[in-house]
Specification:
199 residues, alpha/beta, Rossmann fold, six-stranded parallel beta sheet, 8 helices
Length: 199
Amino acid sequence: MKLCVFQGTFNPIHNAHIRVCEYIAKNMNFGKVLLIPAQNPPHKSIDSALAAHRLEMVKLAASQYDFLDVSDIEYRRNTPSYTYDTIKQLYKDYNIDGKINFIIGTDAFTKIESWYESDKLKKMVDFLLFLRDNDYNEAVFDRLRSKGYNFKLMNLPFEDISSTEIRNLAASSKPISNIVPKVIEEYIQKHGLYRIHKI
């Protein structure tokens, strides 16, 4: 099987995340995109009390779309959510045709060399890049390609949705129905998320 994964904190999952997955599923011939919420991301300070809620919201969002699936692989480990470890486990769990495709924003990709076991990771995945604002510096990405990072830039216009903005709006009880799926807005309201935990 061909496998495409989208790993992130999803705090919370929002419409831009889903739009990226839909684009990939339709234009790259993936039946589904596997969403992998990070329980304990090593590069971010995040409220651990929200971990279970973040996973549940991703599951709820995925249930609304036939091109999404969810893995709790990083919730079954008591270690930091290193991408290398996750990808290595996916190769054991799935009968994968070729390389795993890995969705990533250009902002995160510029820091890829700082990731855990980056030299090994680059041999295991093909990166699918999505522009974050106008941050594509051709020289930077050419340098990464020369170092063995295989990537393809996706032709999808940048959609400026910020998870931080969503959390701030939710903390102030302001509407977020235009930037997250309805089921996510309802879940946030039901559980009072971000009014206490704003991180």
